[in-house]
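Hi everyone,

Forwarding the result from last night's run.
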Amino acid sequence: MKKIIFLLLFFFSTPVLGNSQKVINYFNNVQMETIEGIWMTSRGSSFYIIKEGIEYSAYMIDSPNYSSGAKWMNLYKNSETFFQGQCTLHNYDKGTVTLRINGSNNLEATCKVGWSSQTISINRTWPNNVDDHNRQVEARKRQQEREMAVIRQQQQDSMKLQTKTNNQANKINSNSSNSNFKDILKKITGH
């Protein structure tokens, strides 16, 4: 859910939906699945795949046939290496697509529209290694958690010190008040 909300903010906050640096900045903070990331087709189009709920969406970054940010494919996971869904060709014809992961850095997509079919080879351009990326994200997350634990401990220590200081001040005020009361009582009673 956080991913979807961030994506909505991400997309509506930028005029160029396909900007690859903004895509990288987003992915730098999240764990990725093998299919996610930035890819390049054998025909020179770059796009990224991102998980949105239960579907995976492919958006164009740079292509001679599509506008930047255009949604190219909607995919649904059948297995760890096989996806099916819908595709849109550059002439806006809708069709079906099958996509296979061939290793962690290669995909093969076949888009069928009517009687015609197109098979495209696709190579990962970012990140080079999803497992390494996910380890780095996890390490940054653990570091942030450690830093937050230190901050929380400092806040607790500060609160304890403040409480101790307040208790001492109250004790001094109480002793001072008792002393003043005793002096007044002595003056009134003469004792």
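The chain has three helices and eight strands.

Cheers,
N.
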